[in-house]
Amino acid sequence: MRITFLLHNAYAIGGTIRTTYNLAGALAERHEVEIVSMMRHRGVPRFAVPPGVRIVPLVDLRPGSTDAALPAYREPARDFPVEDKRHHQYSRLVDLRVREYLRGCAAEVVIGTRPGVNVYLARFGPAGALRIAQEHLRHDAHGKALRGVLARHYRTLDALVTITEADAAAYRARMRLPGVPVVAVPNIVPAPDVPPSDGSAKVVVAAGRLAKGKRFDLLIDAFRVVADKQPDWRLRIYGGGAARERLQRRIDRLALADRAALMGPRSPIEPEFAKASLLVSASDAESFGMTLVEAMRCGVPVVSTDCPLGPAEIVRDGVDGRLVPMGDGDALAAAMLELIDDDAARRAMGAAAREGARRYDPAPIVDRYERLFAELGTSRRRRGWQRTRARYAASLARRRRTFLRHVRGSRPGRWLRQLRRARRARGAGGTGA
């Protein structure tokens, strides 16, 4: 089977890129797989390309590229939805290259990986292929206008895949998609090629984009409490982002410069996790929680806020980690101290984490995708009828609304309203007599 992934930029660093590479690499062991990158900004991808996977860049953003001299390169995109926050990164040239590629695409399955790219797939994807939208962000993370655009286009696709059951439930409840199954399949997180943590290092780690929603400020504040009671323990935060200077000022203000450090981005991150005994996430929201699983695969227990959506589906509270209320720094500090103070419990949770994280092995997740492809192929006609019936019902509803508006605005409609008012007036008069 030929499978194509559509990715925003396969040459950058990010969770969606990493998880797409993981899935593409696992599928490539049984299928012909390529990743089509809407754009490229460097010579080689930052992540190692999995064996058997071909990368196809569409527009070259590098200085001096021939693409940069084309007029369409400087024009804003028209096909990529303006409601997607990445619209400013897209050009008319990307529109045209995507359309050209998809028209000639011979893949049997095409999978989009972000909202605007999924709109490309819905508009221009080959009719003979299974067209599947992946959502790596939460339903509620999209603005109202974008959700409206997605609902209109996702109705024409074959399936929508989310990475948590909670997000799948949100889409089923809030976005009517007749004939389009909404299924949850978690990300693949392969076993790391490093020895697991033995739980003895006095190190707490955290990782992610240094952005407001990740709440590293809350983590630093909570670690101040930990450092007062356990001065030998250290905090290492991995990642890059706009909040770096602000977080460093916070570390300095709390006199933690010798105990907490911003380490910058690392890839792969697993060797750093294996040097720690505890991973902490203070996020306000996680579409999945890759760092949680990556740490667990290294035998490191997790303390995480119970934020929407991923952590509660990953962490078994009291078994392989702890879940605490979102935004509660005191609870975060207490959970860290609980595991720091109890070596036996921490190591037992680390062992349980390593075992539990095997559910994110490549093989079972590839099996789920292959079953999905087979089911979508055999149910095509039935799902087509579901869409047709839904369109017909919607058309009847629109006609009924139009008819009622016409009747209410017509002379008979005005006469009926006057008659009702007269009857109400007589009734009111009779009651008062």
Provide a descriptive summary of the structure in words:
With 433 residues, the protein is an alpha/beta fold. It has 2 domains: 187 residues, Glycogen Phosphorylase B (Rossmann fold, 3-Layer(aba) Sandwich), CATH 3.40.50; 154 residues, Glycogen Phosphorylase B (Rossmann fold, 3-Layer(aba) Sandwich). The protein is built from 15 helices and 13 strands. It has a 7-stranded parallel sheet, sandwiched between helices. α1 links the parallel β1 and β2. α6 packs across α11 and α9 crosses α12. The chain is globular and about 85 Å long. The protein starts with a strand and ends with a helix. The model has no long low-confidence stretch (mean pLDDT 93).
Question: What topology emerges from the helices and strands here?
Answer:
Elements: E1 2-7, H1 15-27, E2 32-40, E3 53-60, H2 92-103, E4 109-112, H3 115-124, E5 130-135, H4 144-154, E6 159-162, H5 165-174, E7 182-184, E8 203-207, H6 216-229, E9 234-238, H7 244-253, E10 260-264, H8 270-273, E11 278-281, H9 290-297, E12 302-305, H10 311-314, E13 321-324, H11 329-341, H12 343-356, H13 362-378, H14 380-409, H15 411-432
Parallel strand pairs: 1-2, 1-4, 2-3, 4-5, 5-6, 6-7, 8-9, 8-11, 9-10, 11-12, 12-13
Helix pairs in contact: 1-13, 3-4, 6-11, 9-12, 14-15
CATH topology of the largest domain: Rossmann fold
Distance between the termini: 84 Å
Helix content: 40-55%
Q: Using the CA coordinates, give the radius of gyration.
A: 27 Å
**What is the correct CATH architecture of the largest domain?**
3-Layer(aba) Sandwich
Across the major sheet, the strand order is 3-2-1-4-5-6-7
Structural class: alpha/beta
* SSE ordering: EHEEHEHEHEHEEHEHEHEHEHEHHHHH
Number of strands: 13
Low-confidence stretches: none
Mean pLDDT: 93
Question: What about the largest sheet?
Answer: 7 strands, parallel
Annotation field: number of helices: 15
Give the class-level CATH name of the largest domain.
Alpha Beta
Number of separate structural domains: 2
CATH superfamily of the largest domain: Glycogen Phosphorylase B
> Strand portion, in percent?
15-25%
Could you say which overall geometry the principal axes of the C-alpha atoms support?
Answer: globular
